[in-house]
Input
Amino acid sequence: MNPIFAFKFDPIDNPTQLGKIGHWVITFLDSQDKNASIQLAITSVLPLQHSQELQIRKIIISQSDQAPIWHINSIECFDHSNNKMISLPLSNEISQNFLKQIIEDFRKYDVEIQLISHE
Output
């Protein structure tokens, strides 16, 4: 079974109330299902080039039943070698490094989040 990854935000840092943090922009995603949980996209306004082939574009998170916890749904990248968007597996090294980078960047602006995982 693959682990489930999530961000645990400090209770005072509700991501639905945050718009821009440094070079990160948080936007609401429109859902066709009105019963679905809230989904947000965290997007960098600066290109994040991981390698010659991969450019990280955004991370999609969704609200869990526990208020400060937001499930990480996907990390979307542009693959220059295939000229298309791909979704990275959350447990691979590239994804984990990217998630740690977001945490560090948010801390610079006093937004405290933790990366948590469970089976």
